Amino acid sequence: MSVMSEAAKVPAFVRRDLRIAASYRFGLAIGLAGLVGQVFAFSFISKLVNPAELPTYGHTHASYLEFVGIGIALNVVVFLLLHQLAKAIRTEQLIGTIESVLITPIKIGTLQIGSTLFVLLFVPLRLGLFVALIAVLFGLQLHVAGILPSVALMAAFLPFVWGLGLIGGAAVLTFRGGIGAVGTGSTLLGLGSGAFFPVTLLPSWLQAISAWNPMALAITGLRAALIGGAGWGSLGPTLIKLLAISVPALIAGAVFFRLVLRRERRLGTIGLY
Q1: What integer pLDDT is reported at residue 39 of this predicted model?
Q2: Domains held by the chain: number
Q3: What's this model's pTM, rounded to 2 decimal places?
């Protein structure tokens, strides 16, 4: 009964965030236009890139736009999810409602899930629309058979991002700021993941680190599925590796958030901003 009662509270968060997003429809359109603008910019950059430097997926030699389009899409997903919980907490702090929310009969897990669920539902739709747009506008050849494996890769990768987002939210709860640091973290993850250029161009020590960078694993798997048409068999090791990193990251983030919240309650500083 307790689980069911907590689950019943989650849609209220989604309705709230949906209404906020609906009230800023122009901003959503501008955001999508900005993504398409990035692809146009990279279409010119692609003319400077030697195709021989790009990797091959399966029997398909990727064009630069196919290569970078998937990288841009996942980079945006990471940026949005890392910011969401920290942004939600900071907004509650600034409008003076964080303390009243936390003293209501709501579990911390419900607050964490509710604050991020809209983005978790919205991001895949935005990601799919973005990839479809660049495929239509630039004639990219992507494998439809790679869609389901790509969904599985994203499901294995998102808990890692959520765990980092919980750590970022805890930092904002304590320091009343620091969202910029979250942005810096997502930028570093992106640069070391091969989102915009092949990992082979990085120094050898960074290449070794990128072998365990979950974002690099996810991007490589997505490219293998969507560009090379890789199936479940070849993507299985990547899925296992992602889960082995994502699950501990999610647990660590949840525990850290609880510890920080407990500290703020003990000090009586939750309402400060």
Answers
A1: 74
A2: 1
A3: 0.81
Residue 208 belongs to domain spanning = 2-267
Nearest partner of 228 among 220, 240, 216, judged by Cα: 220
The 3-class SS string of 174-231 reads HHCCCHHHHHHHHHHHHHCCCCCCCHHHCCHHHHHHHCCCHHHHHHHHHHHHHCCCCC
Residue at token pair 């959503």: 28
pLDDT over 60 (residue 1): no
Looking at residues 100-107, what average pLDDT do you find? 71
What tokens appear for 71 in the block?
């990288």
Position 115 in a domain: yes
Asked if the model's pLDDT at residue 240 lies above 90, the reply is: yes
Query: What is the chain's Cα-based Rg?
Result: 20
Domain annotation covers residue 272: no
pLDDT of residue 113: 77
Kind of pairing, strands 60-61 and 56-57?
antiparallel
- Tell whether 273 is covered by a domain: no
CB 221 within 8 A of CB 153: yes
Q: Extract the tokens encoding 159.
A: 């808990």
87-97 pLDDT tens trace: 777 777 777 77
Evaluate the CA torsion angle 118, 143, 137, 45 in order and state its sign.
positive
* Of 111, 88, 96, nearest in space to 271 by CA: 96
First to last CA, the chain: 35
